[in-house]
Amino acid sequence: MKLRYAMVCSSNQNRSMEAHSLMKRQGFDVSSYGTGGHVKLPGPSLREPNVYDFGTPYKQMYDELRRKDPDLYKRNGILPMLKRNSGIKLAPQRWQDNSADGIFDVVLTFEEKVFDLVLDDLNNREHSLMRPVLIINLEVKDNHEEAAAGAKVALDLCQELEATDCWEDSIDSVVTAFERQHKRKLLYSISFY
């Protein structure tokens, strides 16, 4: 693989981690992040989410929720998701706090609000390298089924980008063909490092 990818959602739990997992298994150079202020997981009700700081290990969340209500968190898919996540990396990482992780060629977001936050962060950095980065938003609902389907679509898109000689020269045709094939609209922009 010639490009370096970042998968970004709000909490670095479901959509970004599902795509991270699939792309890693396919041999891509991939990382994942969240853009929220905290990591939020569903709780017993909408008014009672489980809130964690970025950097809290997935295993710690898993153990805590398993102690709280193993039936609820198994039934709603949170425990299997956390188990999957802990097999990929230690803990959720916040995009804005991890700029030292390196330079990405492509940043794929799964929600327009996240796309805007990533673009804003990149545009407010010093652009000393003048190296382009492609930011693409692929809208995916934040549930387990949609995250799994979205990861497959994200993989297709990344495989198309890998097949180009230079994404800067072919991004318009790649996006047009992708949108036609998948019947999904993409939002994209270019920033710089």
TrEMBL record:
It catalyses: O-phospho-L-seryl-[protein] + H2O = L-seryl-[protein] + phosphate; O-phospho-L-threonyl-[protein] + H2O = L-threonyl-[protein] + phosphate. The keyword Membrane does not apply. Keywords: Hydrolase, mRNA processing, Nucleus, Protein phosphatase. One of its GO terms (cellular component) is nucleus. One of its GO terms (biological process) is mRNA 3'-end processing. Its main location: nucleus. The keyword Metal-binding does not apply. It is found in: Nucleus. One of its GO terms (molecular function) is RNA polymerase II CTD heptapeptide repeat phosphatase activity. InterPro entries: RNA_pol_II_suA. It is an enzyme of class 3 (hydrolase). Its EC number is 3.1.3.16. It comes from the Eukaryota. Pfam families: Ssu72. Belongs to the SSU72 phosphatase family. Protein phosphatase that catalyzes the dephosphorylation of the C-terminal domain of RNA polymerase II. Plays a role in RNA processing and termination. This is RNA polymerase II subunit A C-terminal domain phosphatase SSU72. It comes from Spirodela intermedia (Intermediate duckweed).
